[in-house]
Amino acid sequence: MTALPFLTPPAVASKRKCGNSASGILELPVLGGMTVGESAVITELLADEQSAFVKGAQISDAIAKAESISLSEAFSIIEQSITGAKLEEKADEIRTRHAAKIDEVARIYRTAGQRNMEATVTALIRCRCDLPQWSVSDTRTMHRALFNDVWQLAQDEQDAEDNPAAPPTEEDLGKQPAADGAAKKRTGRGSSGS
Questions:
Q1: How far apart are CA 25 and CA 45, in angstroms?
Q2: What are phi and psi of 10, to 5 degrees?
Q3: Which one has a higher pLDDT value, 53 or 33?
Q4: Which of 108, 122, 106 shows the shortest CA–CA distance to 43?
Q5: Chain-wide mean pLDDT for the chain?
């Protein structure tokens, strides 16, 4: 692999043990985020899946028309029903009348969530264990403890992307630090004299 001419090299990858004595233990690198290759594998594995959101929107549309409410109100009733949130009386009556449709959306969401987990774990095994032929079928044969630990690693990596360890310094951004700290802050407001 060709090395990039970094001004600041990436952090050295640490290792995490996944699994236990019953499942077997893998040691996977912790990179501080998902790689482009891992994201591409996940996208590829989920490409043929029907979007749970689309199916939820279709059922929301049917409920909205049947109940003469807005699409967003219908979708909100479905989401609140699935998450177990308390509904207002009218919304709860609508939920009761359309319970079978709402249960179908809940099943689709659960299935989509499981497929996303399987695709993500498959991507990490393929890329971080250098097993390009590893399939979703292979992932489904994994011991639950090992699967859960690799899934948790993926979640931690995605969280690390959203929450960088430290904000960049002024030097990192190529700015000169203020000389005495007495520089005026910009507020976005015009001066009173303008």
A1: 25
A2: -65, 160
A3: 33
A4: 122
A5: 86
